[in-house]
Each structure stands twice: as structure tokens, then as C-alpha cells.
Amino acid sequence: MLTEKYDMAENNLNKLVSTLSLLLTALVFTSPVMAETVRVPIQLDYPVLRQLMLSQLFNGSDNSADKKVEILHDAAGCSTVFLSNPRLHEYQKKLEIITHVKANIATVAFGNCTPLFNWEGDARFLTDPIIKPGARSIGLKILRSQFYNPQGQLITGQIWELASGRLLSFMNRYEIDLAPTINQLNKLLPDILDKRSALQISKISDSLKLGAISIESDGIDVAVALQIDRLPATQEPVATLSFEEIQKLEANWQMMDAMITFAVKRYANATNQQELRDTLAEIFLDARYRLVDALTMPVSATNDPVRHWFIDSWQKLGPILRQISLENPGQEPMLISLLAATDALAVLDRLGPSIGLDISVNGLRRLGRMLIDQPGTNPLFYDNAVDPELRHLFRLSPFMKLNAPSGFNFSFWPISSAWATSSNERLALWVPTKSELPEYLPIVRDLLEDSAGDTIEPGLNAATKKLFQNLVLTTAWQESCWRQYVLKNREIVTLHSSTGDTGLMQINERVWRGLYNTQKLRWDIAYNARAGTEILLNYLLKYSLKRGEHKLRGGLDNLARSAYSAYNGGPSKTSRYRDPQAILPHQKIDAAFWTKYQAVKQGNELQVVQCLGGKALPTHQQSAKNVPIKPDKQPSAVSRNDLGKTWILAQDKHHYTLQLAVFSSLKAAQKFTEDTQFKGSVAIAPLGKEKEGQFVVIKGSFKEKAAAQALKQQYKNIKPWLRQIKDIHSSIKR
């Protein structure tokens, strides 16, 4: 009996638990989901509001100084009152509008206008912006209006009585129409919330309306409110992205990058203020560096670092785009819609994955049309071609011409000058063995030094020029160990990192897309060297020097350290080398650069051999007296049978000389020396077996490199190549 009671009690308990479970489940699934109110901020700066007022209420040319409006014009044409030059600002948390008033009051007497008085001053309106019925536009509630004379004294009487009614009527017409912005947000919603049904999207769209307004010191802040519910949380593990999803993500980031690039170019072309153009260039470069970082981060269905990057980039661009738009009246509504859309993305993104934000291709296209709605123009087009507009933005030459290390690219005669280009040809696809490093590294050093010399601005002092040369040598050491190519699976390939850094100077192809030729960066070591020196000079002059890094403890060398930090991390990182809060990997990078830089500064740049597994090469001091050794008596170009070979082989192999040219015949070499009329003598010698039948022309033998560089400047029109004598020895003997 007792057992039966226990069984009965247990059955009743189980039934009760089941019933309660069903009730709880029913409550969960039948309870309404509470929608969350989201507010998208729209910032209306006072200059933008003024421009809107000029366009809406005032007449005249595009020059705002000419815009005025007549609010009183009697039938006889005797009296007029004009308003001009509106100014808007915050006053005690209200919007105050001040306009200039010019009144000419007259009466009709005997068929003529008889002047009564003329007056000039200001009309001041204290207003409260209010949301108009329909919640899609903002009007003004005028709290107070007054006249003031030029001395700031309140004016009452006849002029006020005559004009006040018309003034109030006029100002009441001002309306800030945000319906186009709300309509654009409505159209964007399905393209960024594609996990929701049409009914859900419709409910969100219906909830869109203007919310609270606040008057701030820099403008009016308006919130667009919308109601959105969070998607149900899923306990299912996030699946690995499919190949198709990865392809979609790649296409998306390329379109995002293209759109930001297009916006930067468009607004850079829309302003004549160099300071604004430079700011755009800096934001653009930092965005590109951050894109490279974002692309290395793990991606999942609920987390997209590139989307975060895209939204954040627009947040940084917004203020500068607003400023530039003031120079182009009529563009304000379009920009307001675009920035409101990107602000909406930022707000929804911050709410997390439960909102289901995903910027689709259609969403990007819609954003692109907010940027420019012009047939035949695609702001999402992505390619790797060199873009003259981008190079102009960075104040670079339209096309990077290599006034190359002359031994790397030149020709004086229609006949072949094979040796003149042989070093470039030798470096092409050259992956040196350890035994070849003593020959390879000096050639690369000469290439880097000549690239630095050809890039540096002539107005800089000697100390800064030397620092820049050391910076270039050290950067190439740090980035690539002076390599352009490596062996991979027994094939010669360009040195290329997983993040897209390429070649000798490890120039990131994604960061510098459009500014440099990608194929040349990969396969032309001289082009890569010149591009890297150009980038370093940009950071040195426009950022490190301009920001006064050399004025801090550490002095002039800070410029090199700062420029390299920027080269590695972007323009915002110029102070990273001295930042104790920098993350540890960055501290290690900057410390390694500093160690190498000090070695280069001491003349030990060939220690780079150690990172290639070679033995330290002997170095010679290059910082003694900058006075050339008086060379032994040199033969004339044609007076000796050996044509100068004996003299060349007798020179100290560590000395420096200028290689002027190489020709495929003795006659051509002789004609060159006669036609050029060099001061002093030159030496001509036949090259070795590999270049049999070719003749090198050189001038001078200098212990100090600086002396050879000084002579090089005298003959810069023919682009001589500064070389060590030992390189000439090797070419003659080979």
C-alpha cells in the first residue's frame, strides 16, 4: 500500500513538473519580444546649417557674401529692407540666428520717393528647433526677435514696427528637411539586415522617425530613432566559413577599400586647402594600414573585423568631409545622408551580433550611390593600376621616373651599352649564395644609396641627408635583409610576406595600391628601392620632422626612428618608438631597427650579411676627412695601348670611382669622352670575357666616398654610377 502511495505521489509530481514546463515554454514563446530603441545621431554643424539657410532663403550667386533677400518692397518701390550674411550659433542652449539688415525707408510725395531714413544693423532671433508633424523635418519656434545697431544697442520704434512682422514670417520659413536621409536609411535596411523577413524590415522602417534634438556649441544634434528587436541567440557552434563565403568576404573588403579610396580622392579634389588634403591623405594611409591588420584577424559569421574597419574609417572621415563640403554648396543633403547611413552602421555594429548586421554587396552599392549618383561612375571599382589622382594627393610626381642609379638604367648611345645595365640585370632574379654575398651586398648598397640620393630634397642640410641615407639602408636591412628574391620550391620568387609586403623594401601592396605599380614592386628591384625611399621621405618630412621629433631627447636620430615607426605602422605611429605603452611586438620591432641603425651610422651597414647566414665583411671607415685622394696620373682616353686597364687595376680596391658609361666598341667610348669634354682625364678599359667587346669608361679614384659623391654632382646630367674600384676590378678580370 505504501509503495502504491509513493508511486501515485511520484506520478502526480511528474505530471506537475510537465505541466509547469509546458506553461513556462508557452510563456517564453508567446511573450512579445521587446523591441529595442536605437538612436542614430545626425550632426548638423553650424556652417552646414548656414549653407542650407543660404540655399533655401537667400538669393544671389554661389558666393555667400553676395546672397541677400528682400523682405520689404512697397508698391511704389520707395522702401526696401534687405537681409544678408546669416550666422548661427548656440546661446544658452538655444539656437540664435543673426542676420545683417539694411533698410532704406522713403515715402511717396508728389509722385516721387522722399527718403525718410536709412539704417543698418543686425536682427537677432532666439529660436528653439522643433520636430515638425510627420517627424521628418525640423522647424523653428521663434522665442524672441530684436534689432541691434552696429554699436550693439537694442533698437525699437518705427524701423522695428515696420519690419518685425515680415522678419518673423521670413524666418519661420526655414526648415531642415531630413526626409531624404530617412528615406535613404529605409532603403538601406534590407541590405544590411538580410537575416530578417520583409515583415520585420517593414516594422523597423515604419518606426523610423526623428527623435530628440539638442543644441551644442558646434551644431545641432538630431537623433533618428528606430525600433529593432534582437535575433534569437543560437547555441549551435559557428561553422567554418565556406569557400564561397570567403570569396564573398574578399569581394566585400575590396569594394569597401575602393569606396573609401574614391571618397578620399573626390573630396581631395573638392578642396583647395592643402591642410585638408594632407589630413585626408593621413586618414587614408592609416585606414589602409588598419585594413591590413583587419585582414589578418580571424573571421566568423558573427564577427567581421573588416566590417568594423570600414565603419570606423567612415567615422574618422566624417568630420573632414563635412568641412570640405562647405566649399561645395549644394552637396550638403547628400553628405548628410551618407554620414547618417554610416553612423547607423556604427550604432548597429556596437549592439553586437544579435542584431544581425551584415553589409551586403547591394548595401555597398547603395552607400556608393549616396557618395556619387552619376551614370558611368562606379565608386566600388577595385584595381591595382597606378592612380595619378592618388599620387597627386600625396604630392608625388605623376609617374615615378627612376633617375636611377645610373648603372641600373641608362643608355647614352643608340648602340648597346650592355654593361651600363648589367648590374640591374645581375640583380634581377639574383638569389645570392653565401659565396656571392661579398659581391651582391655592395651592389645593393650602391642601389639604396643612389636611390636615397636621387629622392632626397636638395634643400635639406647635410646632416639630415646623411640621416636619410642611413634610414634607407637600415629599413631595407630590417625589412628584407637586402633581398628582393628568394628560392621557394626551387623556384625564384619575390620576397613576399603573408600580409602583402613585397620585395627589398617590403612595400605593402594593399597599403600602397594605386600609388605604385604592383608588378614593378615585385620584379624590379630598382623600382622597389625607389618606391621605398619615396615613402620614407614622405614620413620623414611630412610627419616626423613636422611634428618635431628631433626636438625631443635623442635629437636628430629620432627622425629616423620616428619615420621607421610610421613606415611600419602608418602615419599615426610616428611616436611609437618612444611610447612605453606600445604593445610588446612593436617595441621589439622598433628596438631591432634602432640596433641596426646604430651599426649603419657607424659605417657597418655590411653587417647585414649576418642575417643572410654569411660571415661579417670587412668594413672601411667612410667618415674621415671628406677630401679626395689625389689620384695617380691617369692616362688619356686613347694614349696607351692598354687603354687604362693597368691604371685601374693598380688602384686600391676600397676606393671609389665614377662609372660614366659602357659601350660596345672602343670607337664609341672614345667619341663619348671627346664629345663630353671632361675636365681632367678618364680611363677606358675592356671588360672581361663575359662582356667581351665592351668598354667601360671611369673617372677618378677616391678614398672617401663623399669626395666621389661631390664629383658625381658635377656630372649629374649624365647620371654617373658611383662604384667601388673592386667592382670594376671584378668586371675587368672576369
Report on the architecture of this protein:
The protein has 734 residues and is of the alpha+beta class. The chain folds into 5 domains: 1-31; 59-177, no CATH class; 180-232 and 240-374, no CATH class; 406-612, Lysozyme (Orthogonal Bundle), CATH 1.10.530; 645-733, Sporulation related repeat (Alpha-Beta Plaits). It has helices at residues 2-30, 46-57, 158-171, 179-192, 198-207, 243-269, 274-295, 305-325, 332-350, 361-371, 388-393, 422-427, 437-455, 462-480, 518-523, 525-545, 557-569, 584-601, 645-650, 666-676, 705-714, 725-733; strands at 36-45, 68-73, 80-91, 94-109, 112-131, 137-148, 154-155, 176-177, 209-216, 219-228, 485-488, 491-494, 501-502, 507-508, 656-663, 683-686, 695-702, 721-724. The chain starts with a helix and ends with a helix.
Describe the structure in brief.
With about 725 residues, the protein is α+β, with helices and mostly antiparallel strands. The protein is built from 22 helices and 18 strands.
Walk me through the topology.
Elements: H1 2-30, E1 36-45, H2 46-57, E2 68-73, E3 80-91, E4 94-109, E5 112-131, E6 137-148, E7 154-155, H3 158-171, E8 176-177, H4 179-192, H5 198-207, E9 209-216, E10 219-228, H6 243-269, H7 274-295, H8 305-325, H9 332-350, H10 361-371, H11 388-393, H12 422-427, H13 437-455, H14 462-480, E11 485-488, E12 491-494, E13 501-502, E14 507-508, H15 518-523, H16 525-545, H17 557-569, H18 584-601, H19 645-650, E15 656-663, H20 666-676, E16 683-686, E17 695-702, H21 705-714, E18 721-724, H22 725-733
Antiparallel strand pairs: 1-10, 2-3, 3-4, 4-5, 5-6, 6-7, 6-8, 9-10, 11-12, 13-14, 15-17, 15-18, 16-17
